[in-house]
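Researcher: I need the complex structure. Ligand is nicotinamide-adenine-dinucleotide. Inputs:
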Amino acid sequence: SETFQMKQILNDLGISEINEGTSTGNNIFASGEIIESFSPVDGQLIAKVKSTSKDDYQKVIKTATSAFKVWRTTPAPQRGDIVRQFADKLRENKQALGTLVSYEMGKSLQEGLGEVQEMIDICDFAVGLSRQLHGLTMHSERPGHRMYEQYHPLGVVGIISAFNFPVAVWSWNTALAWICGDVCIWKPSEKAPLCGIACQNLAAQVFKANQLPEGISCLINGDYSVGEFLTKDTQIPLISATGSTRMGKIVAKEVAGRLGKTLLELGGNNAIIVTPDADIKMTVIGAVFGAVGTAGQRCTSTRRLIIHESIYDKVKTALVEAYKQLRIGNPLDENNHVGPLIDTDAVKSYNNALQKVVEEGGKLVVEGGVLSGEGYESGCYVKPAIAEASPNFKIVQQETFAPVLYLLKYSGAVENAVEIQNNVAQGLSSAIMTNNLREAEYFLSVQGSDCGIANVNIGTSGAEIGGAFGGEKETGGGRESGSDAWKVYMRRQTNTINYTTKLPLAQGIKFDL
Ligand code: NAD
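Model: Output:
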């Protein structure tokens, strides 16, 4: 019956056995190679997608460029109303889309639904924002002059996304880009192409119902080489790319080479500092969810716990106990805490991390292992593991996209913990568990965490859409979602208007003819 239910869901979302992977709205086509999407949940082939060829892409960029001419002149609050209708479409389809996310990507159903809720939330945020795309006014130094700045849409925005948030990341970008007057071309991860097709189908319904042209929302599919159509295209002023640091470095160079803009959301190596007077119960909940939620495949997953020596053993024991309660299995079954990794390559890098940490002198306090047998046929289910390690181990310095948690010990003042925390290449999310005001404020101060996200008494994982999301250093420096992140999707123009009959120059320069 589960298979039957999934067929129904795919049908409701407009997904067939073989799908055209290129779309400018209602116009769908593709002539590239076939991508097969297998579920990590049960190893079954869900459906196939025809990827985007270079010729297909040329049609897409042409359509998007001409759609931009219409969309940019549609008043921003009216664009907001389209996004409002899209949010309603997501509300109607939340169960179906959330289930597909869970089945194609492997996260728990609750998290799949949560991801769709995040899409709805960012749309709501964008609707309000569509009436608030404010610039500033300034006083001119010249008499009879007025100065102000305004924000105009950029053009075609290219979105490249990772497998682990196969729908939300797109909406964080599109909801804002659309109200800003931009049109979007999205290349989802080749590991979750059906999520992309489902989203595009829903968006297309809204644009069609409003008699808007093809090309405001476009989809292309394929691997990195299809991503390169976007990064190399001088007609695309902004590339928003979410994924590994490895990918970000290539994309940044490519786009910078043509002086385009990038918004990069790359890997993290997130830590929670556990201070002597931390609330242990809260710490354990935050750390366990942070480390094993989404099977450790969130960019904000907790990778490192930096624990004060005075409470180290207590925290370790509590964590080992908590890990005994974890149920690993089908993520569509609400009783399970941990679902599968995305694919068997991810299982390899999980195994590699466990091997490396031991080789470097670490000790596994919760042993890992790959599960087999009934319910684990996909070969993607692994046991969350905990290792005692040193901050400078090579493997601890890297992001392993799997449920492996490293316990690191610190002694003395909180400064020492912060130093360990910051001493990695990545700078996404960070947290401190403390009831000590001085420690909390130090952690948030200029000398404290160097991450884009710094939390007190909550974990590293997950964020609300109201704040700007992103991180420093090798995380790429981009910010998306809330606060003033919208500004990256627009170009700023400074305007000076002279309403006199004289032409005074700035800085008092005289130029008499
Ligand atoms: P990935 O880098 O393998 O792929 C991400 C996307 O980039 C895919 O769509 C891929 O096809 C594309 N791509 C790869 N090379 C490219 C190239 N040279 N040119 C153009 N496109 C290219 O990442 P993944 O395995 O899908 O995702 C996991 C990674 O994403 C982790 O490192 C995680 O931390 C990161 N991530 C970061 C955030 C964030 O907001 N900071 C959010 C989610 C995931």
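Model: Summary of the prediction. Residues 160-165, 187, 189-190, 223-224, 227-228, 231, 242-244, 247, 250-251, 265-268, 299, 399, 401, 428, 475 surround nicotinamide-adenine-dinucleotide (CB under 6 Å).
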